[in-house]
Predict the 3D structure of the following.
Amino acid sequence: MQMAKADDDDHERARRAVETEQVRPLAEILAKVRPSLPGRIIGTEFEEDDGRYIYEFKVISPNGRLRELHVDATSGEILSEEDD
């Protein structure tokens, strides 16, 4: 159950940040970065890092590799990509 609590917290923090226009809605960010995400998104997290809001996407590439992408939740800029 601990995982569900963390997911609920992510969702609530993201909702508040969208309502106060600190970040763009997830659907809008996804529409912007989807062409750059090779493969299937299997998970999303919402984080704050040094005052910057970030969407973290876990993506399985077409060749089966698990990748993690960090995307600025305000601009949609891909900040980093790494193997997970």
